[in-house]
């Protein structure tokens, strides 16, 4: 089926078009620059930006896919989780399109969409199930067990406080680096412009929820607020002592702490559930050290790692269209029009308001 997907859960306005498992276009407009001076995504600013970006993104996606609205078999949209006001813009647009074109509408879960993104990776073998999936972005840090993309996704654990990307953004801020922090920390850890690369073992920062006493109740959960405090305190002490802060070492050591705990817990899930497959997704996957450590340690553990191309890892409309195409292929009826934006949509709701439920 030819499906158009609309994604507006955070700061990316994404319009994607797929034909079955084939990617035709994936237009992304980001309001990230507008949030930069606030050091994080401002919901009202994001919602307004979606309103402005949607129509041009839609035109561009149709032109690049070389299809017209009349050709579509279905419209898909993210109904949650995400920022309520931002989600509402996409949901409103999707309903209007579906009604005016008289096309079926599929309202889907954003996080499951991140997993569906992998289907569009033309260079990879078909995705196999079950798989463990680790989704790390500015808003989410979730460990999932996916038995069936359209029917059975289980949340194993998630962050109890900050998301991994949020931690990168906050530490960057403490180090006086601009937003978004992820790429900046990467650059600083590499030594910046021509400097000496940082030592990831220079400072042993805490790995959240990794002590034996934490693991009993939070084996697959994450916590990054303690790490943030530890880094801030370490820097303060240095400054108070009148010593220079070794930015490259702090960045490399902080990054190592985040990467270590993410990879350790994801591989623990693979082992516990006897699933030799790990799928990575979300904008933090852009982190080179994370990819490196995940690939190396997974190889040692006999686990295959899948990393979709970055343009499909960050928020986009194509992954939403891809998930809807899978739902259609497995015979699911469209959603009814009685759904809204749900900022806390649980992962078990892969499709929202299916009309045959
Ligand atoms: P959502 O949480 O809804 O998926 P988001 O917009 O917060 O949305 P993404 O756009 O997928 O998430 O990712 C943005 C986040 O990824 C930011 O927090 C950013 O700092 C982080 N990030 C980007 N590049 C890197 C990197 N190289 N290393 C670490 N983090 C990175
Ligand atoms: Mg984003
Ligand atoms: Fe996302």
TrEMBL record:
Domain of life: Bacteria
Enzyme class: transferase
Subcellular location: Cytoplasm
UniProt EC number: 2.3.1.234
Residues annotated as binding Fe cation: 110, 114, 315
Cofactor: Fe(2+)
Keyword presence, Amino-acid biosynthesis: no
Main location: cytoplasm
The record's free-text note on cofactor binding: Binds 1 Fe(2+) ion per subunit.
UniProt keywords, alphabetically: Acyltransferase, Cytoplasm, Iron, Metal-binding, Transferase, tRNA processing
UniProt keyword tRNA processing, yes or no: yes
UniProt-listed Pfam families: TsaD
InterPro entries, alphabetized: ATPase_NBD, Gcp-like_dom, KAE1/TsaD, Peptidase_M22_CS, TsaD
Sequence positions that bind substrate: 135-139, 169, 182, 186, 287
Function summary: Required for the formation of a threonylcarbamoyl group on adenosine at position 37 (t(6)A37) in tRNAs that read codons beginning with adenine. Is involved in the transfer of the threonylcarbamoyl moiety of threonylcarbamoyl-AMP (TC-AMP) to the N6 group of A37, together with TsaE and TsaB. TsaD likely plays a direct catalytic role in this reaction.
Family in the record: Belongs to the KAE1 / TsaD family.
Name of the molecule in the record: tRNA N6-adenosine threonylcarbamoyltransferase
Organism expressing this protein natively: Microbacterium sediminicola
Gene from which the chain derives: tsaD
């Amino acid at each position: 089926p030819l499906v158009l997907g609309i994604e507006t859960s955070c700061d990316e306005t994404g319009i994607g078009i797929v034909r079955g498992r084939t990617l035709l276009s994936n237009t992304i407009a980001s309001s990230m620059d507008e949030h930069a001076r606030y050091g994080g995504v401002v919901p009202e600013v994001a919602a307004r930006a979606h309103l402005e970006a949607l129509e041009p993104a839609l035109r561009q996606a149709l032109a690049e896919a070389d299809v017209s609205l009349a050709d579509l078999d279905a419209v898909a949209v993210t109904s949650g989780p995400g920022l309520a006001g931002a989600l509402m813009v996409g949901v409103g647009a999707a309903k209007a399109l579906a009604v005016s074109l008289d096309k079926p509408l599929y309202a889907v879960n954003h996080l499951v969409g991140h997993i569906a993104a992998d289907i569009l990776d033309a260079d990879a073998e078909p995705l196999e199930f079950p798989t463990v999936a680790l989704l790390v972005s500015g808003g989410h840090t979730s460990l999932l067990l996916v038995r069936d993309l359209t029917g059975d996704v289980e949340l194993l654990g998630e962050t109890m406080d900050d998301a991994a990307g949020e931690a990168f953004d906050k530490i960057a801020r403490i180090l006086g680096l601009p937003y978004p922090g992820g790429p900046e920390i990467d650059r600083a850890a590499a030594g910046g412009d021509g400097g000496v690369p940082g030592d990831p073992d220079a400072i042993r920062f805490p790995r959240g929820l990794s002590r034996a006493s934490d693991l009993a109740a939070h084996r697959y959960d994450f916590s990054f607020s303690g790490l943030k405090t530890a880094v801030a305190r370490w820097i303060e002490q240095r400054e108070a002592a009148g010593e220079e802060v070794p930015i490259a070492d702090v960045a490399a050591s902080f990054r190592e702490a985040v990467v270590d705990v993410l990879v350790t817990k994801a591989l623990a899930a693979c082992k516990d559930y006897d699933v030799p497959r790990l799928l990575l997704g979300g904008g933090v996957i852009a982190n080179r050290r994370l990819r490196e450590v995940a690939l190396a340690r997974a190889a040692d553990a006999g686990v295959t790692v899948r990393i979709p191309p970055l343009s499909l890892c960050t928020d986009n409309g194509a992954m939403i269209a891809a998930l809807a195409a899978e739902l259609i292929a497995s015979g699911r009826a469209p959603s009814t029009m009685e759904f809204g934006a749900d900022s806390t949509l649980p992962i078990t709701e892969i499709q929202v308001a299916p009309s045959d439920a």
